[in-house]
Amino acid sequence: MNGKEILKYCPNYYNIVNFDFSENDVISEKLISIYKNYIFNIDMQNRNELEKVSELDHVLASYLHDYLFRSTLQKEIVTVRVKRDNNIISSLVDAIIHIFTDYEEYTTRKLYISKWI
């Protein structure tokens, strides 16, 4: 697989891998490691995996810029359970994306504009 091809789906790659986290921040280090491992080991012919790579890229970019999401992900990722027969990296990627989806639904509120008569 060509690394340049996969980076077309990861516009935030360099921001993510060059993220300056503290020495004690093991979770950020592991998330970035999972990200790099996952994106460079997918099947480029599989459309679902390419979409998941793009989504993971977006989620980790949000992780870098949104402090509230960062703390939410750090709390919830340690509770994720992976079955032995599943691919660990793929299962963690699915969990990360799921946590972000739940976070977005929880923090996004519908605004109603009332009409005054």
Write the layout of secondary structure elements.
Layout: H1 3-7, H2 13-17, H3 26-39, H4 47-65, H5 67-77, H6 88-107
Helix pairs in contact: 3-4, 3-6, 4-5, 4-6, 5-6
Short description:
The chain is mostly helical and 117 residues long. The chain is 63% helix and 0% strand.
Can you offer a commentary on this structure?
63% of the residues lie in helices and 0% in strands. The chain is mostly helical and 117 residues long. Helix 3 (26-39) runs antiparallel to helix 4, helix 4 crosses helix 6 (88-107) and helix 5 packs across helix 6 (88-107). The termini are far apart.
Percentage of residues in helical conformation: 55-70%
N to C succession of SSEs:
HHHHHH
* Count of alpha and pi helical runs: 6
**Radius of gyration of CA atoms, rounded to a whole number:** 16 Å
Which segments are poorly predicted (pLDDT under 50) over 5 or more consecutive residues? none
Shape: globular
Largest sheet: none
Strand content: under 5%
Structural class: mainly alpha
Number of strands: 0
